[in-house]
Hints:
Number of strands: 14
Helix content: 10-25%
Structural class: alpha+beta
Number of helices: 4
Mean pLDDT: 90
Strand content: 35-45%
Distance between the termini: 51 Å
Shape: globular
Strand order of the largest sheet: 7-6-5-8-14
Amino acid sequence: MREPKxxxxxxxxxxxxxxLREQMRSEIKRLQTEWGVTTIYVTHDQSxxxxxxxxxxxxxxxxxxxxxxxxxxYDRPKSEFVANFIGRTNLLRGSVEKQVRAGDxxxxxxxxxxxxxxxxxxxxxxxxxxxVIRPENVQLQALESTMNGAGPNTIDGFxxxxxxxxxxxxxxxxxxxxxxxxxxxxxxxxxxxxxxxxAVLPESKVIAICG
Length: 211
């Protein structure tokens, strides 16, 4: 019997419970690696796409809006749709202070202050852009334990909400009446609702989305 040159899997795990999905996901990855057959895997489950793929194509209204490695798609989204579709993210908007070239880190004026972002394409002064940072890249500190003054990309706020997810705790950090940041940290940080905190946004992890 001849082995297929191409294998198409369309939502193969959609009817399984969470634990069985993880087990079968690992088995599919093992078999695909062992057989070496090119596989197209169609799914709405972002974690499956990340775990199983060498390259991911994100479609919107039947058109490919971004294609790349899982880390490219996750860490360097090129549109708001991709940023919101793949995993949890924080998305904010602002205006560029001055002309920026592709690859530069530059400041964006926002309602929560001046935030320095990494730009993948050039923009001119005054352009309105969006930017994203993943919750796990937001660094939280209890404000009482912060001895130094605020540096670049630091924002003070308070814990508006907390959800325990097992291996991580997800915090909603209130910045003002309208704006929040989602941060994911190890549960040992031990923050509680109402605690004052300082959020640090590493410049290389704050990704500008232009156009």
